[in-house]
Here is the input.
Amino acid sequence: MAGATTAALVTAVARAGALGFLAAGYKTAEALAADMADVRAAGVASFGVNVFVPGRPAADPQRVAAYVGSLAAEAVALGVAPGRATWDDDHYPQKLEVLLARPPALVSFTFGVPEPEVVGSLQAAGSLVVLTASTAEEAAVALGAGPDALCLQGCEAGGHRAGFANDDRPDQDRPLRALLAAVRRRTLVPLVAAGGVSGPAAVVDLLARGASLVQVGTAFLRCPESGAPPAHKDALVAAGLDATAVTRAFSGRRARALVTAMVREHPDAPAAYPEVNNATRPIRAAAAEVGDLGRMSLYAGTAHRRAEARPACEVVERLVSGLRP
Ligand SMILES: Cc1cc2nc3c(=O)[nH]c(=O)nc-3n(C[C@H](O)[C@H](O)[C@H](O)COP(=O)(O)O)c2cc1C
Here is the structure.
């Protein structure tokens, strides 16, 4: 979880017997290497790293500029100026170099499918490669790249949707169980099921439906090891913040978040990632500093109210408790 996963969270999850993923997103390659070194120094040999596949610069820069202009009041209220709406590749080639130099057990990708040579070189270096899909059509494309596993992200999931194209095509919102059923009948590749997992019964259910592994994100956000801002941790269970919605207001890419003023007031945010993310960064950071929930990106899955403020090892214990004989 970019912005929320820490080396301490991955270490705690691994010690509890689960598989933790470091988030490479929004970091420099050097910061990723430092996180990987921290996890290894803590004695964790098996962990994954999640990487964003870069997209393309926004097709309509004028629309992006107009949207950023419409955020002026939010910025002024917090005493900051919006950031520059620039495109970047999130240091993708440099991160691949770090991963190839010292391969982790797994490398997963989201927001698209890397070149087959990238998949092949990571596999040759010793990493298992996991590709994320949010529709059966994306899963079919991802399978063509020869991954070791697919992560299926249902529309219940918190944070950014893994969708390959940042567009408005219909039918992008597939509930996890329907997605799992559609893909399971087409492939024997291991499937990781993600999205809205609320507790042990959901873990048992998803494994019975053909998932090989179950992934959770939101359930870890309130842990002491999570790097989510304190206001975000509290908001997940706060009175009056019951609903989540998919929004581009914060980043220019579809993401599930708690419904706050910024989400309600900007249904028109353009498809422009990471341009919008870069422009809103100072606003989001200043809002997090002062606990201004209305202007923070409070990413959350549909099961957010079940997230507990307990150590990550206890969260893992609870999630797997239905698997004991
Ligand atoms: C705060 C937050 C940040 C996330 N960051 C990433 C990320 O960097 N890469 C990624 O592949 N998925 C990311 N996700 C999505 C998770 O990988 C996963 O699909 C999702 O958390 C599962 O749904 P759940 O949150 O309902 O458990 C993020 C989710 C959240 C809540």
About this structure: The chain has 13 helices and ten strands. Residues 275-290 form the longest helix (16 residues). The chain has two domains: 1-54+89-217+311-325, 58-88+237-299.
